[in-house]
Write a structure and sequence with these properties.
Blueprint lengths: L1 H7 L1 H19 L2 H10 L4 H16 L4 H8 L5 H15 L4 H6 L7 H13 L2 H47 L21 H27 L6 H8 L5 H22 L4 H11 L3 H4 L2 H9 L4 H6 L6 H13 L2 H56 L4
Helix pairs in contact: 4-5, 4-9, 5-6, 8-9, 8-12, 8-13, 9-10, 9-18, 12-13, 12-18, 13-15, 17-18
């Protein structure tokens, strides 16, 4: 009895003192904020970047992963704390870090999960997370640059749409002088008043929705569209590099880490190609693995499906001949990442010019319609 009493007393005193701050934080946070975090699901780029950097630093210093995750669970949003805490609990149950992170639903990005799994296989987890921290930092900067580039044109586009709506609304006040006389139509298409504004906004919304659905479908590879689109657009300036450079950077870095750690070629190639997230490149995985099983070189196996860029195959071949394939792949990963950043910046500038052109086209069209209506009204009132 005394042993039970002594062992039961520390539990209510020690454990609540550790969990009290988190429970107070949870109680102080608005419930709607927690619900919003659950709805959004995934971690932000900043959270993922900080997670990778701090975890890489801790692992490099020899800190246990459980200790790192427990520290991470003390700060950040409630969703982030829950994800780190649950990940630590799954690791205690015997799961690997990649599997434990995958059990958090869609919170951690799929690419990070793939790279963590590759890092576990290669035994270079700190290096992998360091690379991913730099990758997400570059992605965050590129996204910020992209948004800053198109913010002003988008605002001006919205202003142009508002002006057209105002024109349609004003058009509803023009009435005909007689039964046989048509009222003045500034739009030239019969849109008038509030109903005309609603029709116009419905058209704009439908076009935007169609573009959004198509973009989402391309991202998710609906109808296996990557196999059709990537070969068509990868050689197109500005657009093509966005589809290829990022994927090749992931492939090069993953392959470099796994080969450098002594992982067998078949497993290294499989994980590297899957890490691209590009279904066009992933379609060449069976032929590549068959080539490796037949004893072909890495460059010959990767060239077999004819989906990878020739410069990539040539660089791997040179690396094999020189005996420095891992170092060559690491250099290529850095080069591809820099090219991807430049491609995204160019895409942002091009998107800005495209929006400017759309605004100019709308303004010119409105002016032309109004001028045409004015001429028809003027010549219609002249005596015959």
């Amino acid at each position: 009895m005394s042993r039970d009493a002594s062992s039961s007393k520390p539990k209510p005193t020690s454990r609540p003192t550790r969990r009290l701050p988190s429970s107070m934080d949870t109680a102080s946070e608005p419930s709607n904020r927690r619900a919003l975090e659950r709805l959004l699901g995934g971690a932000s780029l900043t959270q993922v970047q900080n997670f990778c950097n701090r975890t890489a630093t801790g692992l490099h210093a020899g800190v246990d992963i459980l200790r790192i995750l427990e520290t991470e669970a003390k700060a950040g949003s409630s969703r982030y704390r829950d994800a780190c805490r649950n990940t630590a609990e799954r690791i205690r149950e015997g799961y690997s870090l990649a599997d434990a992170m995958r059990m958090q639903g869609d919170y951690f990005p799929p690419l990070l999960l793939k790279m963590v799994e590759a890092g576990e296989h290669s035994g270079q987890m700190d290096r992998t997370l360091r690379f991913m921290g730099e990758y997400y930092l570059d992605l965050k900067k590129t996204r910020q640059d992209f948004i800053s580039q198109i913010t002003t044109p988008v605002i001006q586009l919205l202003i142009a749409i508002a002006i057209v709506c105002a024109l349609i609304f004003i058009n509803g006040f023009f009435k005909s002088g007689s039964i046989n006389e048509k009222p003045l139509d500034l739009t030239g298409v019969g849109l008038r008043g509030v109903s005309g504004v609603m029709i116009f906004l419905a058209i704009i919304g439908s076009i935007s929705m169609v573009i959004g659905v198509i973009s989402f479908g391309i991202w998710k590879n609906w109808f296996n569209c990557h196999n059709i689109l990537v070969p068509l657009v990868r050689n197109i300036p500005v657009i093509g590099p966005v589809f290829t450079q990022t994927a090749m950077s992931r492939l090069s870095m993953t392959l470099s880490m796994m080969l450098g750690a002594g992982v067998d070629a078949k497993r290294s190639v499989r994980e590297a190609i899957l890490s691209t997230g590009n279904y066009y490149y992933m379609s060449g995985l069976p032929l590549t693995l068959q080539g490796i099983e037949k004893g072909q070189s890495l460059s010959e196996s990767l060239a077999a499906p004819q989906v990878f860029p020739e410069e990539f195959i040539q660089a791997i071949e040179i690396g094999e001949l020189s005996g420095s394939d891992s170092e060559s792949l690491e250099r290529m990963a850095i080069q591809y990442r820099e090219k991807a950043q430049l491609a995204l910046k160019q895409l942002a500038i091009t998107a800005g010019f495209a929006i400017w052109f759309l605004i100019a086209a709308m303004i010119v069209t409105v002016i032309f319609i109004i001028f045409t209506q004015y001429l028809s009204l003027l010549y219609g009132n002249l005596p015959k």
